[in-house]
Amino acid sequence: MTGSEPRSTDGGETSYGNDNNPEDSSSSAQIAADDQAEPPEIKPGFWAGLTNLFTSFRRHRRNKAGSLRENLEDELSRETHGDDTAFTADERELLANILQLRGSRVEDVMIPRADIQAVEDTVAIADLMEYFRESGHSRMPVYHENLDDPRGMVHIKDLMAYIAEQAGAPKRNGRRKNGERLENGSNGKDTAAEVMNLATVDLSRPLCETGLVRPLHFVPPSMSSSDLMKQMQVTRVQMALVIDEYGGTDGLVSLEDIVETVVGDIEDEHDEAEEAMITSLRDGVWAVDPRIDLDDLEEEIKTGWDLEELAEDVDTLGGLLFTLLGRVPVRGELISDRHLPGYEFEVMDADPRRIKRLKVYKRRHDQRAAAVRTRSKRAEAAE
């Protein structure tokens, strides 16, 4: 073929030297006839089937992430031993907590209102320093008259900077390096020690006049814990007050509280060892913190209570007793209820707002029968 010969523009192959072959001629004629014929009719169900195929494919792609999550949850729940173990026990716990974080709400991790340590905006600087020393916290909420009128929070770093400034500490550009001393000319004395005078600090000045109150977050109890964590990371404000539907303060959440739901308790040098939620005193007797979760209590002492309806409204033992009694019990009160068979509760410590400490007794059938017989004899003697 030369450069002047025309090239085939259709999609078929071009044959050379076979024009006299009768079989090829008949095949070409048949192909031409097929091209001129009407295309075969496509059944109506074809497009529906094709559409369903693509829909199923898209649904599979959408559910792929969910399937991966389910597979991971199944793997974490599966008990394996030896070399077959894909994750260590610590890794399993950490991954399980991360997966559960998506379903966690602020109300699940918040500190209840009764346990909030806060200061009033009229507190004196000297008293504020004492509150920080007693609590061991670095941040504290600030309110006006009561917790339902919050004003913000105060940070201990801001307080220390305020005291240093009022005492006349020299200002520096940048930060002092590790071990670096501030020299004052040739005498070698520390400039801050020479210039600062703590006697000039007015420790009676109220907090509201110092400008130390910082803003904090106000969030609903139903907010996702992971969403609040992201919000705290963006705003760099690590404290939030939980506000109920009526505008009152329901609880307090910090970034540390959310992180602890994943990695476990985080304790620093100033954290004191917390008293155990439940302690066995002797056989059948326990000292119990009323804040203990009902599930944890069941796991520890195997109560066997049927609390399906009651457990929908309360989560803790203290809340359960308050709901059953309809009031806050007083110190020394002995509580027994038909909903909690086999056990009695002695209030060891309480205030007008809440129960602080409980003692739980497991009643034995022989003791119960003996008590019944004793009451019967006393009644007969009285007659």
TrEMBL record:
GO molecular function: flavin adenine dinucleotide binding
Region (Disordered): 1-44, 167-191
GO cellular component, one term: plasma membrane
InterPro entries assigned: CBS_dom, CBS_dom_sf, FAD-bd_PCMH-like_sf, FAD-bd_PCMH_sub2, Ion_transp-like_CBS, Transptr-assoc_dom
CBS domain boundaries: 110-171, 212-272
Ranges annotated as biased composition (Low complexity): 24-34
PROSITE patterns in the cross-refs: CBS (PS51371)
Biased composition (Polar residues): 1-20
Key words, A-Z: CBS domain, Repeat
Pfam families: CBS (PF00571), CorC_HlyC (PF03471)
Protein family per UniProt: Belongs to the UPF0053 family. Hemolysin C subfamily.
Name of the featured protein: CBS domain-containing protein
Native source organism of the sequence: Pseudovibrio exalbescens
Lineage, highest ranks first: Bacteria, Pseudomonadati, Pseudomonadota, Alphaproteobacteria, Hyphomicrobiales
